Amino acid sequence: MTSIYNQTIKMFGSQPEPIFESAEQQKAVWGREWGCDNDVGQIGICLMHRPGEEMNIIDRSKRIEEIGSYGDLKKGWYFQSDEVPDWDEFREQHDGLVATLRQEGVDVVFLDSVEEDGIKSVYTRDSSFAVKGGAIVTRLARSIRRGEEAHVSRSLANLGMPILRTLHGNAMAEGGSFAWLNSTTAAIGRSICNNDTGCDQIEQVLNAQGVELIRVDMSGYSIHIDGHLTMIDKDVAIVDPDGLPFQFLERLKELGIRTVEVSDQDNHWIINCLAVSPGRVIMPRGISNKTASTLASMNIEIIEIDYDKVQLNGGGIHCSTCPLTRESVH
């Protein structure tokens, strides 16, 4: 028996190569190539959530003057803005983003389920994000969002996408604070929602893939890097320099990344935009003539949509989309 066992091991033994993330192994084991190694290549699959009945928990009679908005400390929910939108208009704008993505050739898929009070679940960027060969499921920092991780895990599994890491222990990180700068360099905003343990666990996955993770200290109570930087072409980022450390801005230059700075005339939410392919970007309305001219001079094409109602809940276009696959760019 031992000799037969040894012989089979020799003939059908361990095969570490080709690597997990290779196209060959991805297609053979997982049915297709999963993941992203950039933030601007043509999006293949994008995970979203159409806001549903969970939004009904927001009670306009529950006013908390200390936050200047609405919330319920006992039930653990709060609304981000003083104005609560009409939910039909809210959903209509989200539907418009979905339709725009589909017009751009994106396969939009949706979460299978959300928490009954998951009013932030529309912002699918935060509960997971894609790396080479699969996804990292995060651990959301705020109690209002805790529980989204289980729903996204089930949804990714049902899609057949590998989950390479689920953050655990006291790790906290949210996908809105993760950005690919190029195929070998990523950045994460360290903040009230992203601690060192979370960064460490993400870094372990990336380092194994030959990717450097740059930690960027956010200012004050700023929670996510995508409020201050979003890649819009393979070597172009739109930024709010006041929200980013000088050393990081210098590192962007070293990487050959050109930056477009928002002006006081811009709707600040234009930073929270989404490149659907290199140099082709979905942005909310409110781009100043100055910024529009600068973008045009860099051959950046802008698709403007209405998204102000969804932004009232605390997230924009970038927050509302979680690309699961993108084409590589060179």
**Inertia-based shape:** globular
CATH homologous superfamily label: L-arginine/glycine Amidinotransferase, Chain A
CATH topology: L-arginine/glycine Amidinotransferase, Chain A
Residue share in helices?
A: 10-25%
Low-pLDDT stretches are none
State the distance separating the first and last CA atoms: 53 Å
Radius of gyration: 21 Å
Fraction in beta strands: 15-25%
The number of distinct structural domains comes to 1
H/I helix tally: 8
* Structural class based on helices, strands and sheet pairing: alpha/beta
CATH architecture: 5-stranded Propeller
Describe this structure in words.
The chain has a single domain, classed as L-arginine/glycine Amidinotransferase, Chain A (5-stranded Propeller), CATH 3.75.10. Helices cover 25% and strands 22% of the residues. It has helices spanning 2-11, 23-30, 87-103, 148-159, 196-208, 246-254, 289-297, 308-311, and strands at 45-48, 63-64, 69-72, 77-78, 107-110, 128-131, 134-137, 163-166, 178-182, 185-190, 212-217, 229-233, 236-239, 258-261, 274-277, 280-284, 301-305, 322-323. The model has no long low-confidence stretch (mean pLDDT 95).
Task: Record keyword descriptors for this entry.
single chain; 330 residues; alpha/beta; L-arginine/glycine Amidinotransferase, Chain A; 3-stranded antiparallel sheet; 8 helices
Write the layout of secondary structure elements.
Blueprint (H helix, E strand, L loop, with lengths): L1 H10 L11 H8 L14 E4 L14 E2 L4 E4 L4 E2 L8 H17 L3 E4 L17 E4 L2 E4 L10 H12 L3 E4 L11 E5 L2 E6 L5 H13 L3 E6 L11 E5 L2 E4 L6 H9 L3 E4 L12 E4 L2 E5 L4 H9 L3 E5 L2 H4 L10 E2 L7
Parallel strand pairs: 1-5, 7-8, 10-11, 13-14, 16-17
Antiparallel strand pairs: 1-18, 2-3, 3-4, 6-7, 9-10, 12-13, 15-16
